[in-house]
Amino acid sequence: MRGGWPTGRRALGALALAALAGCARTPPLPQAQPRVVVGEPYQMGGVWSYPREDFGLVQTGLGAVATDQRAGRRTANGEIHDPAALMAAHRTLQLPAILRVTNLETGLELDLRVNDRGPQNPGRVLEVSRRAAELLGLRPGAAAQIRIAVQAEASRALAAGLPQPEAQALQVAAAPVGAVGREDLAPPPGASQAARLREARPLPGARAEVVAAGSAAAPPDRLPERVTRTAPAPGRLYVEAASFSRRDLAERQAARIGGRVDAIGPRNRQTFRVRIGPLNSVAEADRALEGSLRAGVSDARIIVD
C-alpha cells in the first residue's frame, strides 16, 4: 500500500498506542513507608480526638465497614490500604496496633491491624476493611455491636520493628561544664553493705521478664484469617458522657444532656457516671450522641453494656 504503513504495522502501532494510554491511566501504587505514629489532636466529623499510646485499651461500641475502600491509598502511618487485608481505623490508638475484634451479635472474633484514623462518624468506635467485615459478619452501611481489645504483646513487637520518628530525642546543646576534681575517701562504717547492694545483679525473675518482653515475634504485615467463634453477647446501647468525683457536677451535666447519674465504687471513694439509656436502636443512640455533642460534651460516646 502506497503512502502509508502496511496493514500489519498499523495494527501493531495501534496496539502500542493503546498500551501506552492504558499505562497513563493507571499510575503505579505508592510505596509503603510504615512507621509508628501517635500524632497530634485533630478534628474529624466535627469532633476533636486526642491520640495516645494505650496497650491496655478495651472498648465496646458500634463497628462499621470502611466507607473509603480504595485500594492503594496511603494510611495515616504510611502503609497502603488493601480492602482484601485485615485492616482497621481507630481515632486515638497508636498506629500500627493489633486489635482483637469481637462481633458481640454473632460471637465471631478476629485480629486486625489498625493503621489508619477514623471512623468519620463519631458514633462508631472502629471502621474495618471489606474483608474483615465479611469475616466478622458486618454489613456495609450498617453498624454492629463490637468489643475491641489491644493485643499488647503483638502490638509492642510490631512497633519495635518500625521507625519511630515521634520518639526521637531532641538534640539539645548542653552548656560547657568545667573540670570537676575528684578525691576518693575511705567509706564510713556500714557503707560497704550499701556498695554491695548497688553492685548486686538483677533478680532472676525481673531479668526473665525483660528478656521475654523483647523476644516476642512481630506479627506479619498481612495478618492470617483466623476467625474464632465465642458465645454471642449483645448488650444494650448507652451514650456515656463523663465521670466525676462530685455528684453535683455529674448532676449538672446529666441535666444538660437529659441523662442520669450512676454512683460507682465504695461509698467513701465513689465516682459518678453520666449516661443516657438504655437506648432501643442504633438510630436512637445516634440521636442521643448528637444531642450530647451539641450540648458541648465532647467526650460522649456510644457504648454497649
Write up what this structure looks like.
- The chain is of the alpha+beta class and 305 residues long.
- Among the domains are: 42-161 and 223-229, RlpA-like domain (Barwin-like endoglucanases), CATH 2.40.40; 237-304, Alpha-Beta Plaits (2-Layer Sandwich).
- It has helices spanning 7-25, 130-136, 152-160, 191-199, 204-214, 247-257, 282-294, and strands at residues 42-44, 47-49, 58-65, 87-89, 97-103, 108-116, 126-128, 144-150, 228-229, 237-244, 260-264, 271-279, 301-304.
- It has a 6-stranded mixed barrel. Strands 11-12-10-13 form a 4-stranded antiparallel sheet.
- Strand 5 and strand 6 form a beta hairpin.
- The longest helix is centred in the N-terminal third of the chain and has 19 residues, at 7-25.
- The chain is globular.
